[in-house]
Fold these 3 entries.
Entry 1:
Amino acid sequence: MADKKIYLSEKEIPEAWYNIQADLPQPLAPPLNPKTGQPLGPEDLLAIFPESLIKQEMSTERWIEIPEQVREIYKIWRPSPLKRATRLEKALKTPARIYFKDESVSPAGSHKPNTSVAQAYFNKEAGVLFTRTEGIIPAPESSHAIRAAIDEALKCKETGEEKCIVFCLSGHGHFDMSSYDAYFEGNLTDYAYPEEKIREALKELPDIKENR
């Protein structure tokens, strides 16, 4: 009986991400700024993403190196199996062979950690540096702001420009660490944000159609 699952070895985990932009017949249309309706530039993304991620987003290089630490975390669930859907083939009475790459084997049960682990890695670098130099463990949300501030400071280092950089440290991460412990112990209570609050917040979003 033929195997239903095909696995690669951990040694075969890719060392670089493939960037499809390098092989497109023409570049993808850029995302639009919801306020201006104009194409987003790197400077628009610095408010929420570290520069290392923005460079990847804007890059047209075919291969982008995967950091070794990210590859080590990927080994928790990757390589994910390639499975043959033999029962589906039988139900369809088809001579075709049907395979699917099963990304449900990740801890989150989906493909999302494939990108979220990398995003957390690049933002964590900034948080760790801040902790080591300033002696404060930042809240996870603050790591985005810290990363942006570091990127701006490094630009000033290259250009010699003197600039005043201010960011908000939204809080320390001590309470977050206890929440992580509670989660892994199964004691963290789920909280569903009220629907009326969501609808109220959505009313404040800009109407993109007005800018077209």
Entry 2:
Amino acid sequence: MQMFLRTFAYALVAMHIGVWSASAATFNSNDLQTIPKTTVDGISLTTITSDGAFGSGNATFPGLLVGLNDEAGTYEFAFSREIVSIDIFFYGLTNIDGVLPPEQITGFATEDGAVSIGFTNLANATFAGNMIQTNAAPAGAFLEGSGVISYSGGPFSSFFLSHSQNGINGGFGIDRIVVSEVPLPAGAVLLGSGLLMLGLRWRRRTA
């Protein structure tokens, strides 16, 4: 009983000072190739679209392929658990021969409405307002943009984006998605461990 009371006290202290424990899951290119549903560390990701197209990647274009039908589309990434952040690593956002408008990603939202994202440019991409697009390529050439779309807030269980292209681009790829779950108070975890230990000791005494 003293062990339980001590563990309970530790839990109350941890919860009072706001100690939190969060977990993250990384969906890599091999995971994303198993669309429309893949599971990592107990979190399932389902890809959904009614007007666009998803495809499974290969050695040349790894991961999840988006927008294969050369048309505009809206895409949903639905998770089996609530999350508080998402990072989407994309590549192959293309502009060919400087034809405008270039390939674009926009319309970022969760199930609660539109959101403002963060963006890290890895190559040949521009973030303006709430739109990501490929830089214009010189005549007779093409450019492929890559970067990281980041959002934290929520909690939320679905993330949306829209994709548009001028009919000659062929979509883009996603080779990694990293999400963080809603954090749990570390004190609650400690309290649960204490209850389990108490139960085991009680079982031994009554055996």
Entry 3:
Amino acid sequence: MTDVVWVLGAGLPALAALLVIRHRLPVLFWWLVGYPVVFVRVLASYRATMDACGLTVPASAVQRATARVMGRLAAPVPPRRSLPLPTGSGLVMRLRMAAGQAPEDFTASADRLRHAWGAHAVHIRPTKPGRLELRLIGWDVLADVRPARRRLRSGPLLLPLALRRTGTGTSGTSAPCRTN
């Protein structure tokens, strides 16, 4: 009984702290909890997910011959990938496409990849011929936008982000654009 009390006594404050961190500091929560979970999920299901999305190619002749000698079937080959690298809002993987694959295939499968890996969004960008950058976004970064904590000073070369119909800046003062 005392073991359960100790576990609950340590577990409940830790859970409460994680919930507060998730609400107040989503980037810190991503680094502590979200990234490790998504990292393991992507690594564990990469081959199966790529196969389900139709992003694999048949095995090479050498792999098929080796599998035949061993009495197995040759598994389809997914694109080569780097380790998932963390970013402030998700993770990035660099993929090397196999012969016969096109970036459009990956772009068409982005929604399926998002769903399979539990991400908010997946963006595919070709970087070089035969190489892609797959970017997973962990959460909606625009859901809770907070203003900057300090006020920015206005000067002759600073422009406001938005102007009202009256031509005044968002702080209520006009911000002329001067070039010297």
